Amino acid sequence: MLSIFMLPFLAAAGMSSPEIEIVPIGHASLVLKWEGLVIHVDPTSRGDYSGQPKADLILVTHNHSDHLDLAQIAALSRPDTIVVAPLAVQETVTGAEVLRNGEKREFKGILIEAVPAYNLKRGPSQGRLFHPKGVGNGYILNLGEKRIYISGDTACTPEMKALRDIDIAFVCMNLPYTMPPEEAAECVNAFRPAVVYPYHHRGSDLELFKRKVTAPGVEVRIVPWY
Fold first, then answer.
1. Which CATH code for domain 7-220?
2. What DSSP character marks residue 56?
3. Mean pLDDT of each 10-residue bin along the chain, 226 residues long
């Protein structure tokens, strides 16, 4: 089981943004803490949430079982917790606030943008995709002066390549469901986040990803998600 540890992301000198605390839980699950708010991303019962507070916000990227877990959502929720999710998730989490691809709304004072997350070519059979376009979300969270991107399950899409001004990115990579390290690096080289954490990467070659990220100014941080 993954040991929970904290990764502070400090504001640069002269900037007013407070510290963002990042807690990797495992696979696609993480916790962000900022200005007293607690944001759980894709919480599942496979993770160890010992000592973690309940959520102000829960973000669900899509309806696959390694991202959507009703029991864990319930365990982390308070009466005022807001669950933000794509429409397909609302069928299961009936009280979820729906954010469709391309939409942006403010929740608990945080502006959240939904980025399309989908496969371009990989699927379980001819003519089918593991993640069709329009079903899943990635998210951009605007935390003060910092912009945090969480990819969800996706390929290197035009929408990801077009991202700008991302301070921290969590980028998926694993075959056959999302993309290989080379493809993930291609997207990172295009949108150039200040810091990128590979996640959702079970079985992937992270050192290859790190070598392939060649864009200037991008820091690759590899941490133990598993």
1. 3.60.15.10
2. S
3. 43 51 94 96 94 97 92 96 95 93 97 96 78 93 96 97 97 95 98 97 97 97 92
